[in-house]
Amino acid sequence: MIFPASSPLLAIDTAGSACSVALWAERGILAHEIAATLHGHAVALAPMIERIAAGAGISLKSVSAVAVSCGPGGFTGMRVGLATARALALSIGCPAIGIDSFAVLAAAARRSTGPLEHGLLAVLDSRREELFAATLNASFTPADAPMLLTAAEVAALCRQRRLRLVAEAELTDFADPQFADLDVAHARADAAAVAELAALRPDLHLPAEPIYLRPPDVSQPKPALPKAPAP
User: Fold this and answer.
1) pTM
2) Mean pLDDT of the chain
């Protein structure tokens, strides 16, 4: 899907360790706001969208599409971003576009560190022992199916396949001396990267639906025990 250069695109990222929004038009970022947070996305997101739209002098009714990172990531934050993006797109009458969070992380790294010319292993914090991981080509297209890997398994795969590691900024696992030989770039997934990929990379567009690599941590209620017969 190609967008008119003059029509703004709204981007949202709440799947990771930050809440961020961005407006894109004329092949660049018009407005952007990000706040580091693991919780509270539902409270922070709507006012953030209103602020950047007002600051850029943009009416949300003029938005040509709403793009959103669709995971994998934190269950609650990811669902908040997706629900908001779909609701806004429906009310505006524009498409809702999903971008996977591995590509978003890689694009954010490129924005801060420069070109990433080799195969990549993008690693996201799952807030559990195993990490979300995916091998990407230099163009950020997937090379294999996403995986759940420990930090040691991530390092072994990078060494075996000579991959550059792109790790979410909050991950401290790879500061250990045993990983000193790895080529590591740290970045934070960000709506600015979502906007860039949604506007310029239609080949990376996905449905605005959540991507899970493990079931959400929700306990199902136990079935009620049958009552003992009355004496």
Assistant:
1) 0.88
2) 88
